[in-house]
Fold this protein.
Amino acid sequence: MKSLWQRLFASQVWRSIFRHGLPESNRTRAEAVFYNFFLHIHPTKVRKRSVKFTYTWGLGGLSFGLFIVLTVTGALLMLYYRPSVPQAYWDMKDLQYVVSSGQFLRNMHRWAAHAMVAVVFLHMLRVFFTGSYRPPKEFNWVIGVVLLVFTILLSYTGYLLPWDQLAFWGISVGTNMARAVPFGVGDNISFLLLGGNIVGENALVRFYVLHCFVLPVAATMLMGIHFWRVRKDGGV
Amino acid sequence: MKKDFQVEEIADIKKAPKRLAFIKNRSAARVKREDENMVMTFPNLVVKEIIAFEVMVILLAVLSLIVDAPLEWIANPEHTPNPAKAPWYFLGLQELLHYFPPVVGGVILPTVTVVALIVIPYFKINIKGEGLWKEHRRETFLTLVGAVGIVSLVLLLFKVYAMLMPTLIVTGFMLAPYFIKREHGFIAWLGHRPLSWWVMTWFVMVVVVLTAIGTLFRGPEWSWTWPWEGIY
């Protein structure tokens, strides 16, 4: 049995995918990180201090983890959702009563979204209180603040999509806040966002496009830069 | 031969966040000495990341099995709920709108907050993170009391007790080491906190208090409602 595994790990196919042997020595452990696309954002060695859970509380990583959960559940929800009035609401009802595990899927997406707002905020606090925004990481802190704003916008645009009373009036209250920007700018922002003067079908389509395409793509790019800079500036 | 450069050596890393290294020809830019307590990323860090992610997914799944996402009746522009609330992370802002005119609560304060967060790392003052009371104790005391006094007056004028309370509590903790001199313990620890620490702590307390009030303590017509009288 053991020799079978060893033959597999030594085979050309396996070695074409993983270019190193099993991580049994420090050399191959380093290679496991170095030659892996997903792990190469990490250095091959890290300080013991920064691996300690109570230093970072894993909050940055968990923010990204929540983003992954939200992407997967979000893509599945998209299969059962039409951004039009009143179908959007009936699709919610179908998720609740017709689609297998539909309610669970929606719950997962909802709670992960709320959790992400909180976790990203906590991550910001951790970075502040450990002084991790200091030079040379100033600009990465700025990107982080923008990512926090994006997280809130993602959550907020998703809030309208169920098209129930909660969604409609939550978004109405928020866009009315935007109207308070003086010199007519607020009215223009609100009109641009809603595609009209009130929250209607145009607003639903706009929020849907922002929520499912524009904001996630923009946030993904910023996250790439954020992680890359963490690594370049000597973080984990 | 006269040296055309001078290298200053400072043992305290906080005083010299950036360092220059002069690398001679034909030598690799590498530190020979083994670094402090390094561990292999694989498995030490990677395993922790995987466990943290799995625990998070399990907790989310359990929560999703127990608590259903809310779904009310279909959107109806004719029927305004009382109160109409934004999602929880905006309820701090909505609470501000209750006190201040819309331009202040809805535009100026949130913009100032985001800009203030962005410029944090560009304030180069006090990079060593020295305690608030380390030097110029008398001037610090007067400036602090003056600044908090002005803020408190404005808050009193608009009757924003929800912001006044955390402001006064944080100021109380700030002033404690000025009056009570201790070498060890909690008050000594407070005395070693830098100003930036206090500002952020105050900001977080205000955000938490406002959000909690907006979420749990506001009912019809945005009136004060205890949680046991119903959460709107």
Strands of chain B lie at 38-40. Chain B touches chain A through 65 residues (CB under 8 Å). The two ends of chain B are 80 Å apart (CA to CA). Helices of chain B lie at 41-66, 91-99, 102-119, 137-157, 161-179, 186-191, 195-216.
